[in-house]
Amino acid sequence: MKDLKVVYALIQDEAGNILLVHNTDGGGWSLPGGKVEYGETLVEALKREVREETGLAIEVKDVVSINEGKSTQMNVHTLFIMFKAQVHDYTTEIQMKDEISTLRWLPIEEADEKLVYYHHSLRVFLNNHATYYDEGLVD
């Protein structure tokens, strides 16, 4: 079974809204993020994915959730890591129009309704935190 890592950013604006993107591949609504490429750290991948999808430069904060799933049909074991992230400029522009059809800042209640794969409110994640530390290259 192949291992896959996917990172997501939980970004809240000054009004308390959450940024969601709508995926063109039929995946529906999600937090911005995506697959970690070979050689990337989790933070490098998250910064790249968020910039590609939204045009935003983010500051990555704590880990707030780790989920995993296995698909025997696709022969993959996926680890999903959600980080809190901050932005200083909220101006968005979809960079990957072939992957993202739209993005929206939504109140938490509306975001909760669109993110069907979580069994509780995003409010829980906003209060979670675990330190992430990149130990760098170790010989």
How far the N terminus sits from the C terminus, by CA atoms, comes to 28 Å
**C-alpha geometry:** globular
Number of strands: 7
- Biggest sheet strand order reads 4-1-6-5
- Gyration radius, in Å: 15 Å
* Average pLDDT, all residues: 93
| β-strand amount | 35-45%
Which structural class should the secondary elements be placed in?
alpha+beta
Number of helices: 3
Secondary-structure element series: EEEEHEEEHH
Return residue spans where pLDDT drops below 50 for at least 5 consecutive residues: none
For the sheet with most strands, the description reads:
4 strands, mixed
Instruction: Give the helix proportion (percent range).
Output: 10-25%
